[in-house]
């Protein structure tokens, strides 16, 4: 049974959301840590001030849950769902006498010899 167009679009959107929830929160978290830890290069006082500023963000717990924990929970949960639904294809590739990367490789065009004028 084939997937309906809405199921295909839904799967596409869920996979894109899965990618974004893996890259964006981790990237933002890393950028924030680079920024805050770079204050230590200026002085200990500056680093302490930066740390204090981060601790006093209004609604910090809400922001952390909304932009860090929930996206990571979705990313992990959907990743496990994709993993569990995955199909094992090594036996099929061995039966065909090809590795999976060889089956998908585009055919190479051979260069035609130049004709002399």
Protein structure class: mainly alpha
Number of strands: 0
Order of helices and strands: HHHHH
Specify the helix fraction band: over 70%
Biggest pleated-sheet summary:
none
Assess the beta-strand content as a share of residues: under 5%
* Low-pLDDT regions: none
Tally the helices.
5
Q: State the end-to-end distance.
A: 58 Å
Tell me, what's the shape? flat
Q: How many domains is the backbone divided into?
A: 1
What is the radius of gyration computed over CA atoms, rounded to a whole number of angstroms? 25 Å
Mean pLDDT: 80
Description:
The protein has helices at 5-38, 44-55, 60-85, 90-96, 100-104. The protein is mainly α. It is built from five helices and no strands. It has one domain (7-104).
Please describe the topology of this protein.
Elements: H1 5-38, H2 44-55, H3 60-85, H4 90-96, H5 100-104
Helix pairs in contact: 1-3
């Amino acid at each position: 049974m084939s997937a309906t167009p809405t199921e295909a679009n839904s799967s596409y959107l869920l996979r894109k959301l899965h990618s974004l929830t893996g890259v964006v929160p981790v990237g933002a978290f890393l950028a924030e840590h680079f920024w805050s830890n770079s204050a230590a290069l200026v002085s200990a006082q500056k680093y302490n001030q930066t740390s204090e500023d981060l601790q006093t963000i209004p609604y910090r717990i809400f922001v952390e849950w909304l932009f860090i924990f929930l996206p990571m929970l979705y990313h992990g949960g959907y990743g496990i769902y994709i993993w569990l639904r995955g199909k094992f294809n090594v036996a099929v590739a061995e039966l065909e006498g090809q590795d999976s990367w060889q089956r998908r490789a585009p055919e190479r065009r051979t260069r035609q010899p130049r004709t002399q004028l």
